[in-house]
Design a protein that fits this description.
- The chain has about 230 residues and is of the alpha/beta class.
- It folds into 2 domains: about 120 residues, Rossmann fold (3-Layer(aba) Sandwich); about 90 residues, Winged helix-like DNA-binding domain superfamily/Winged helix DNA-binding domain (Arc Repressor Mutant, subunit A), CATH 1.10.10.10.
- Helix content is about 40%, strand content about 20%.
- It has 8 helices and 12 strands.
- α1 crosses α5.
- The model has no long low-confidence stretch (mean pLDDT about 85).
Length: about 230
């Protein structure tokens, strides 16, 4: 996990410095940006492994930045952690709807944020020796290459979406509660709301197209994968 590049976009110098120092102590490389324009320019020369994005920026709304990145094939798979001073659940869900992987509410502990960064990045790490999964010749999942194909076409999933799909497909028919899926994603670093899973599942189904029908909602319980 060491030597990975983290981009921080926040207009508060104290936060840029504090978060940058803590991430560097954990072995990460860090690029900090107080304006979106500079951040956009940097993407042409150094694509980050993860982006920490403040939603209240002076030049461009953070939601718009998230939307731009997730609608661009080159950057769509880069995980995003939102920083927000807003505590309303609707604001957090909106960010997740746009494709963010996680959120942290200000004020926050730098140690907590670093733990969340590590948790999100772990979802991108392939599992050595994990077997390729094929479902009815329409869905192929390769955990080692971190790739998903639907009817021969590659589908770009976020690390969170990939890990949810891999969990469900690994044991077809088994029902996973939202809490079990949250534990699988975050483990002990679980700070998010249950609705987070519903948002990620919806995005996953949309990206899978017709194959998304295999991901079934079991009312009041959770989700399962069933052919």
């Amino acid at each position: 996990m060491g030597n990975q590049l983290i981009a921080i976009v926040d207009d508060e110098p104290d936060i840029l410095e504090l978060v940058g120092i803590n991430l560097k102590k954990s072995g990460f490389k860090v690029n900090g940006f107080s304006e979106v324009e500079g951040f956009y320019k940097s993407l042409h020369t150094a694509s980050p492994d993860l982006i920490i994005l403040d939603l209240m920026l002076p030049d461009v709304d953070g939601f718009e930045v998230c939307k731009y990145l997730k609608n661009n094939d080159k950057y769509a798979s880069i995980p995003i952690i939102m920083l927000t001073a807003k505590t309303e659940e609707t604001e957090k869900v909106l960010g997740l709807e746009l494709g963010a992987d996680d959120y942290v509410t200000k004020p926050f502990s730098p140690r907590e944020l670093t733990a969340r960064v590590k948790a999100v990045l772990r979802r991108r790490e392939p599992k050595a020796g994990s077997k390729r999964i094929e479902v009815e010749d329409v869905l192929k999942i390769d955990p080692e290459r971190y790739e998903v194909e639907v009817k021969g076409n590659k589908v770009d999933l976020t690390p969170t979406e990939f890990k949810i799909l891999n969990l469900l497909v690994s044991r077809p028919g088994r029902i996973y509660s939202r809490d079990q899926i949250l534990d699988h994603l975050w483990g002990k670093e679980k700070f998010v709301i249950d609705r987070t899973i519903d948002v990620h599942i919806r995005h996953l189904r949309e990206k899978l197209g017709d194959t998304g029908r295999y991901v079934k909602n079991v009312r009041s319980i959770g989700y399962k994968f069933e052919e």
